[in-house]
């Protein structure tokens, strides 16, 4: 239903419309850009937006009329939702607005950012020609608006004020709404004031009868859900093909949920990542193999100096794996992102709309293709600039909401080539795949990677050690020792201009080389670790006992003669390697060092003495190294306390064997520092 409002008396009949402005030399009018044209613009005044907590506009969505093919932007504001005919994006028409549900009967102020009928947060989605709108204004519930009311309105002299076609009060307020248009279910997330789903998880509403939503189910086993994408899964994991699956951004994790059977909702997997501050939102690639997500609070908490985008391999839904983190050129806070075909459109607040090529996401790579900075003042870490975008119109028009600067209608053309990211010195591990990339925006680019083998750069043509040599991403198939220290660079051409990258040096890190020696004393074995380039260790003593992670442990075997296989696994950041040795024990009765016998000092630097407490007594001593070799021997008189010169011994662990004149022997570990 439609009615005129007196509030439009001050609305300017000639709205502040902007003609198409191409991006020339990095600017479209006052806005920094590359490969993006400004088609049209409406200010916050044009949209009848009111200021609340520093915010005029928030989220945005779109609708295409199936009967007329007209395109409409649905623009979230602090005080309601505006509807704009953007069929001709160079001449957008403000049709009217649907006020906040509580705007007529104003509620009491709840905070500086929420008060009677206004809210900083609003979200909307579309199903069967109806828009479903939620807000964080308490008691707002979910509005239903019949989008066919927008037909045949032409270009009104004054904007209309629209009314709801329906309302769902099963929630009080909510942060976001997700709709699966294939199934007819809405997933309200971050909801409060509901008798069900009190944790703010997936509050599921059946909207198959569009004007009469009814509660269906709840999933909040993983707590609060900030945003989600719910699809009929059509990826490679055959266990879930054809099922309805939700990919949730749950503050500290990406959580995947099977929602196909609304009576038995099941969490498939939940996974987090290093440096997580607020898992905000994400979107699947078209083939459902990868999920690309963002974290809204890592920049403001100084976890990172640049905007980061996270690439997840979700080909096995039970085991999602973070395969890469993409670093942007700017440090602004990242917000909503969406994927159409091989392109990703990301609203990064003060950095505006950023456009990326994700055709190589299977290799963990994203390539900037263009941008339009809706907030040219700065790229600071703050909540200003582009809140969101809607890139799904068949015409190619991209609708972008900017918190203070209004509605932007854009088109991407990829006409310009420019360098985004130079190759940087990089490192990797031997025998493993290593990547280096040259990020250049533009279309129809040709690439050739080169290396310097000592006499200048030449084209790489070795397709055994390298692949992707004619791509912006060079892959070293298996790092080899002869590649350590090599310089690499890339030459990109667009048919007219040649772009030669800076050079990058490869540092190749080795896997560890495990090695050890040992000394056997009856059933006791002292191990001496001589591994190279290792920082972690695991010892399997071969007798079924617990494994040890000490560098050089000692171990007591059973008091029986036997043979054992000892395995040392040494590790570092490049992986692990193992070595095994056999140990044969012949267990006999050997006295321990009696209390009356003292070997001192132990540890020693230069000498030792032996006292038995039995007066003058000749003692024979033998010192063995870790390999069992005799390195020192002789006689001494315990009564006289003669010193044994040990200065010739290197630092390490030794075994000293002492035999008295009656043939009694004792053995003890000796440590030389």
TrEMBL record:
Does the keyword Signal feature in the UniProt annotation? Answer: yes
Q: Which NCBIfam families match?
A: choice_anch_B (TIGR04312), Por_Secre_tail (TIGR04183)
* Cross-referenced Gene3D superfamilies: Immunoglobulins
Q: Which GO terms describe its cellular component?
A: extracellular region
What this protein is called in its record is: Choice-of-anchor B domain-containing protein
UniProt keywords, alphabetically: Signal
Ranked from the top, the taxonomy reads:
Bacteria, Pseudomonadati, Bacteroidota, Cytophagia, Cytophagales
Q: Which residues form the PKD domain?
A: 536-557
Q: Where is the signal peptide?
A: 1-19
């Amino acid at each position: 239903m439609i009615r005129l409002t007196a509030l439009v008396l001050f609305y300017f009949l000639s709205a502040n419309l902007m003609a198409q402005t191409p991006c020339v030399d990095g600017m479209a009018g006052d806005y920094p850009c590359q490969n993006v044209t400004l088609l049209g613009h409406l200010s916050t005044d044009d949209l009848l937006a009111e200021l609340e907590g520093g915010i005029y506009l928030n989220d945005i969505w779109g609708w295409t009329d199936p009967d007329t093919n007209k395109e409409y932007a649905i623009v979230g504001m602090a005080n309601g939702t505006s509807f704009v005919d953007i069929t001709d994006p160079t001449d957008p028409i403000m049709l009217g607005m649907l006020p906040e549900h509580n705007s007529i009967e104003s509620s009491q102020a709840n905070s500086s950012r929420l008060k009677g009928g206004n809210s900083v947060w609003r979200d909307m989605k579309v199903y069967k020609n109806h828009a479903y709108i939620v807000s964080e204004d308490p008691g707002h519930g979910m509005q239903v608006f019949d989008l066919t009311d927008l037909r045949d309105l032409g270009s009104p002299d004054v904007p209309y004020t629209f009314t709801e076609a329906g309302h769902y009060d099963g929630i009080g307020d909510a942060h976001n709404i997700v709709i699966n248009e294939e199934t007819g279910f809405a997933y309200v997330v971050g909801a409060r004031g509901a008798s069900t789903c009190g944790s703010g998880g997936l509050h599921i509403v059946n909207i198959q009868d569009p004007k009469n939503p009814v509660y269906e189910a709840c999933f909040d086993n993983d707590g609060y859900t900030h945003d989600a994408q719910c699809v009929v899964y059509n990826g490679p994991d055959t266990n879930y093909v054809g099922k309805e699956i939700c990919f949730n951004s749950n503050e500290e994790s990406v959580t995947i949920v099977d929602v196909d059977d609304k009576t038995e909702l099941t969490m498939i997997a939940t996974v987090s990542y290093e440096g997580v501050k607020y898992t905000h939102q994400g979107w699947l690639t078209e083939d459902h193999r990868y999920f690309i997500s963002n974290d809204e609070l890592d920049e403001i908490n100084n976890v990172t100096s640049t905007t980061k985008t996270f690439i997840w391999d979700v080909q096995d839904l039970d085991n999602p794996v973070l395969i890469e983190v993409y670093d942007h050129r700017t440090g602004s806070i990242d917000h909503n992102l969406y994927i159409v075909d091989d392109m990703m459109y990301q609203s990064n607040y003060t950095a505006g709309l950023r456009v990326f090529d994700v055709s190589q996401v299977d290799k963990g790579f994203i390539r900037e293709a263009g941008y339009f900075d809706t907030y040219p003042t700065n790229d600071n870490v703050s909540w200003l600039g582009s809140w969101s975008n809607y890139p799904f119109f068949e015409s190619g028009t991209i609708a972008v909401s900017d918190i203070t600067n209004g509605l932007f209608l854009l088109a991407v053309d990829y006409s310009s080539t420019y360098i985004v990211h130079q190759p940087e010195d990089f490192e990797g591990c031997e025998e493993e795949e290593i990547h280096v990339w040259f990020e250049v925006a533009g279309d129809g680019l040709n690439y050739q990677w080169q290396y310097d083998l000592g006499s200048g750069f030449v084209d790489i043509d070795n397709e055994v050690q390298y692949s992707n040599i004619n791509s912006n991403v060079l892959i070293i198939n298996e790092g080899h020792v002869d590649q350590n220290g090599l310089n690499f660079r890339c030459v990109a051409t667009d048919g007219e201009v040649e772009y030669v990258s800076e050079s990058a040096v490869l540092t190749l890190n080795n896997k560890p080389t495990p090695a050890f020696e040992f000394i056997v004393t009856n059933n006791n074995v002292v191990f001496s670790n001589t591994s190279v380039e290792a920082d972690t260790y695991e010892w399997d003593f071969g007798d079924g006992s617990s494994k040890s992670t000490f560098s050089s442990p000692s171990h007591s075997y059973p008091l029986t003669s036997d043979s054992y296989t000892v395995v040392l696994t040494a590790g570092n950041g490049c992986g692990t390697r193992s070595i095994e040795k056999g140990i044969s024990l012949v267990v006999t009765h050997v006295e321990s060092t009696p209390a009356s016998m003292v070997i001192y000092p132990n540890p020693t630097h230069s000498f030792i003495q032996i006292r038995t407490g039995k007066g003058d007594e000749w003692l024979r001593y033998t010192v063995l190294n870790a390999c069992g070799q005799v390195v020192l021997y002789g006689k001494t008189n315990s009564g006289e306390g003669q010193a044994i010169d040990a200065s010739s011994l290197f630092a390490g662990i030794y075994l000293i064997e002492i035999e008295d004149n009656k043939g009694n022997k004792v053995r003890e570990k000796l440590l030389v520092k």
